[in-house]
Structure formats: structure tokens, C-alpha cells
Amino acid sequence: MKILLVDDSRTIRNIQKNILGRLGYEDIAEAADGVEGIEKLNSENPGLILLDWNMPNMDGITFLKTIRAEGNTTPVIMCTTEAEKSRVVQAIQSGANNYVVKPFSTDTMAEKIEQTLSRVGTSA
Amino acid sequence: MDVRYVNPFVKSVTNVFNTMLQTEVTVGKPFLKTPKCDRPDVSGVIGLSGDVTGVVILGFTKDVAIAVAETFTGAKLTWDDPDFADALGELANMVAGGAKSNFEGMNASISLPSVIVGANHEVVGSRANPSLVIPCDAPMGHFTVEVALKIDKPAVVGAAS
């Protein structure tokens, strides 16, 4: 299964790639903002998306609303510094399947990925 | 600026370094920034807007900035590597974002990070909005978190964990 990482920080994408590699997910696509994320979603057909909130060109919430409006049901885990309850509610209402607050530990990220994939019945 | 609003930044910087760099940070007593304060070589800058306006700046000497960025990325870096600025900008983003979450009931947004590199530079803020400097020590060396905020609505500080 391919996983799409949408985050404007290459450092965060590299950390996420390391965690995913340890979990057995080696097939990774990357995008640095929401616009590139939509292009990669269409060309790479991922089974899971890790999505930042604050990004240039198109933010994570706009990305999420756009793909859900188009009927895309790929599971999405928001991974963001936006930790207020109101933001979490907004993300879930916009179509996020799970939520990870930065800074995150390796264990937390791994747990959220496995939890999300088990809910939708997918594995590495 | 009300000094109570400094505590969320103290909590946030220790949490970010502990979680993402697996290292402890010792935080000293905050003080008012003056022209005599040491100037950084590298600054990670985040702006805040909404009910809270102002800036949060992580300031480092060049050597400490490289050591922090290398610890965060797990890679050997030079100061002109794009990943160097990316790493320090992301750290500033996490510190500001983590602190913002403690201002429950306020509508505040954070900007995308900017990173300034240049020996002994100064980021000049509004005269009406003085900066508080939080001195920090990590195994990689000394750095500062500079906070200059104007808060238009009283917050319930520490409402979020």
C-alpha cells in the first residue's frame, strides 16, 4: 500500500518516512502543499494520507474538503501543531479519520497509523 | 505583556525538545529584551494573528543551531543546506503552535515559519510590544525563545494540556 505524505517540512516527511519504514510501509509518495497533494493523490492512488494543516498554496483543511467533495474516501490522518479542541473538531467534520498533534513521539504516530488502517481494514 | 503568557512557551519548548529531539531543556528566568542582549546568528520566526498578535523567535548561535538541526533531522547538515532552515523553522512552528494551544478560548492563527541566517542579527519588533526572552539550555548549547505578544482578549491560560 502506498502512503502519501503532505507536509511543507521535508524534516517532518523524513521523520514520518522513518516511522513508516519501521512499520513495514516502504512505498511512499510526498507532496509539499495541498496543490501538489491533490496531483499526487490522483497520480499515485495512495491507501493513506498523512496531512499537515498549515502549508503554502493550499492548506490541509482546504485539501481535505476538496477531496471529500469529489468523493475521495482515502483515510486521512491530520498531523499538525493545531492542538485546540475546536481545530480537531473542524478537521474531523471536514473528513479527517484521525488526528496527531505535533510534536509527536514515534510510538504515538505508529499507533495512530495502525489504528486508522485497522478501522478501514487495510494492512502493510 | 503579561508574564503569565510566558508559561505556555516554557512548557512548549521543553515538550518539543523532549519529544522530537529526545533531550532535556533547562529554562532560566525570563527577562525583558534590551539592546545589550546577545544577538543570534540564526532565528526561527513565527508570527501570530487574531486575538493574539506578535512574534515568537527561537534564537541560536550558528554552532548551536547546526547541532540542534542535526539532532532533529538525524543527518549531518551545514548552515546553507535547505534542510537546516527547514528543521529550525519546523521547531519554531511546533513551539509556537504548542503554546497557542494553551490559550484556550482565543482565536489565534500562526504563520508559516521564516528562518533568518546572519551573524549577530536582530529581529526588531514593535516598540509598543516589548519582547520577553526565555533563556534555554540543552545539551547542544544555549538558545533563546523570544516572545512579543499583544493579547486582545483575556485567555484561560493552560486550559489545554
Give the ordered list of helices and strands of chain B.
HEEEEHHEEEEEE
Helical residues, percent of chain A = 40-55%
Helix content of chain B: 25-40%
Indicate the CATH architecture of chain A. 3-Layer(aba) Sandwich
CATH class of chain A: Alpha Beta
The major β-sheet of chain B equals: 8 strands, antiparallel
Based on secondary structure, the structural category of chain A is alpha/beta
- pLDDT averaged residue by residue of chain B: 90
CATH topology-level name of chain A? Rossmann fold
Shape of chain A: globular
Question: What is the spatial order of strands in the main beta sheet of chain A?
Answer: 2-1-3-4-5
What would the average pLDDT of chain A be, to the nearest integer? 94
Contiguous uncertain segments of 5+ residues of chain A? none
The SSE string of chain A, one letter per element, is EHEHEHEHEH
Number of strands of chain B: 10
Explain the layout of strands and helices.
The complex is a heterodimer of chains A (124) and B (161).
Chain A: E1 3-6, H1 10-22, E2 28-31, H2 34-44, E3 48-51, H3 60-69, E4 76-80, H4 85-93, E5 98-101, H5 106-120
Parallel strand pairs in A: 1-2, 1-3, 3-4, 4-5
Chain B: H1 7-20, E1 26-27, E2 31-32, E3 42-50, E4 52-60, H2 62-73, H3 82-100, E5 103-104, E6 108-110, E7 114-117, E8 132-138, E9 141-151, E10 156-157
Antiparallel strand pairs in B: 1-8, 2-8, 3-4, 3-6, 3-7, 4-9, 5-10, 8-9
Helix pairs in contact in B: 1-3, 2-3
